[in-house]
Design brief:
The complex is a heterodimer of chains A (161) and B (138).
Chain A: H1 7-23, H2 30-36, H3 41-52, H4 56-73, H5 78-84, H6 90-101, H7 105-121, H8 129-135, H9 144-160
Helix pairs in contact in A: 4-5
Chain B: E1 7-12, H1 15-25, E2 29-35, E3 41-46, E4 54-59, H2 68-79, E5 84-89, H3 93-102, E6 106-113, E7 117-123, E8 129-135
Parallel strand pairs in B: 1-4, 5-8
Antiparallel strand pairs in B: 2-3, 3-4, 6-7, 7-8
The chains are: A mainly alpha (161), B alpha/beta (138).
């Protein structure tokens, strides 16, 4: 793998990425990361971008938005998600979130909560029938949806006759 | 006409441990996580950039899919590293290898040059092995 930069530069850059992963919620000083990585900011940013396709700052924003998505999906408020991941303004967080995901934080949250509710209430709507059959879950009368599926199937069968 | 694959299954020994491995060590996203009764769980994950491919983390348990004997045999086979379930792709193998190693992932083959690119092999927490590749630019 001759074309790879020297091993230690890789290790330093990977460590910087892992540092961002672990400390994204704090007030990270990216200049300090370059210092800790023991090479110039210019070379650090260039290598980071070559490896991860984004500058350290862009990557930090990405990690923060991804973590905010998890808080929102767990039902936390937009303000909670915003401040918890290290943003300091709800309006700039909302704008950034929408530019990146196409949805406002609240729209994203409703989408995820609706999906979770659907999975909890009607799990068989999210599981391929062959697996549910093999696992014996279709025979479980605790799942009301199965009964409704059976009713629909029966009606469909009658229509086709 | 078949158009796409949307589910693939991996047989695992412990879904809680496997959830941690795929989410926290590989960086995958949970797609569907449904309780299906006491001790029964339907759990799928997907690689971050592939939300429509659900990888089902299928527990090897005694039940409809396995009987007691076949479940025990299957667990032994998985533990002993019999099954290779697929090839994952990354943009930079050396960096991904170093990151995964730092997170405690066990590799059975370090990044190595092949005709098509670079490849490493790693095992999941159950013993299933995967190829991790980076394609060469052609």
């Amino acid at each position: 793998m001759e074309e790879y930069p020297r091993q230690y530069l890789y290790l330093r850059t990977v460590r910087a990425k892992l540092f961002i992963d672990a400390n994204f919620a704090t007030d990270i000083d990216l200049d300090k990361i370059a210092d800790e990585a023991c090479f110039s900011k210019f070379h650090f940013v260039r290598l980071f971008k070559a490896i991860y396709g984004a500058t350290p700052h862009q990557y930090l924003t990405h990690v923060r938005v991804e973590r905010a998505k998890e808080y929102l999906a767990d039902g936390q408020t937009v303000a909670y998600a915003c401040f918890k991941v290290g943003f300091d303004s709800i309006s700039s967080f909302t704008g950034l979130f929408k530019r990146r995901t196409g949805l406002t934080p609240r729209q994203f949250q409703l989408q995820r909560l609706n999906f979770k509710e659907s999975v909890a209430a009607k799990p068989l709507h999210h599981i391929p029938g062959c697996f549910a059959e093999k696992k014996g879950w279709k025979k479980n009368s605790n799942f009301r949806e199965v009964q409704s599926i059976d009713v629909v199937s029966e009606a469909e069968n009658n229509e086709s006759l | 006409m078949i158009t796409r694959m949307n589910h693939v299954s991996i047989f695992v020994l412990d879904q809680t441990s496997t959830h941690d491995f795929y989410v926290n060590k590989l960086g995958f996203k949970v797609n569907t996580d449904a309780e299906m009764g006491p001790g029964k769980r339907w759990l799928t994950v997907n690689p971050p950039d592939q939300p429509d491919l659900e990888i089902t983390l299928m527990l090897i348990d005694d039940g409809m899919m396995f009987n007691k004997d076949s479940a025990a045999k299957m667990r032994d086979l998985v533990k002993s590293g019999t099954f290779g379930f697929g090839v994952f792709q990354c943009d930079d193998l050396r960096a991904t290898y170093e990151e995964m190693k730092a997170k405690g992932v066990e590799f059975t083959k370090p990044p190595t040059e092949e005709f098509y690119g670079y490849e490493a092999l790693f095992k999941d927490d159950s013993g299933n092995w995967f190829s991790l590749g980076q394609k060469k630019a052609h």
